[in-house]
Amino acid sequence: MAATRTFSIIKPDATRRNLTGAVTKKLEDAGLRVVASKRILMSREQAEGFYGVHRERPFFNDLCSFMTSGPVVVQVLEGEDAVRRNREVMGATNPEQADEGTIRKEFAESIEANSVHGSDSDENAKIEIDYFFKPEEIVG
Asked: Which part of the chain is the Nucleoside diphosphate kinase-like domain (predicted)?
């Protein structure tokens, strides 16, 4: 299988606790290569646009507030079957249900502050990568 790309966010709860390197190491140890990365303070407008699919859900405002509460690290990851591999190393959304050794099991504070976001499909990975990165920023 050829290398594919996926999108990842290291969320404010993880950056606040200085876990950027530990999270990235887990991603790299899982066979994913960081081909683009930047630390940003997501604006409210960016958060609302990125999470727009959830606009009608009751947690939308809290999600946007959380994602703008501190710096995040947005990344493009590359590797064989990158979406699946990233989702495996992230673990279940609810850290209580996540497998041992996964990012969310080890680092998440709660189901909301679960340290990472990752694309759920190749199609969404492309959309999410394009939302935060220009092609020339991806150097792999």
From this structure: 3-140
Element (H, E) at 32: none
CATH number assigned to the domain with residue range 3-42+72-137, chosen from the 4 options 3.40.50.720, 3.40.50.300, 3.50.50.60, 3.30.70.141: 3.30.70.141
Count the alpha carbons within 13 Å of 83 in the hemisphere toward its beta carbon.
11
Residues contacting 87, CB < 8 A, separation 6+: 118, 120
Q: Which residues contact 95 (CB under 8 A, 6 or more apart)?
A: 104, 105, 108, 109, 110, 111, 114
Residue set of the binding site for ATP: 11, 59, 87, 93, 104, 114
Tokens of 2: 């050829």
| Single pTM value for the model | 0.95
What pLDDT score does 1 carry? Answer: 64
Active-site choice (117, 119, 129, 132): 117
Question: What integer is the mean pLDDT of 103-127?
Answer: 97
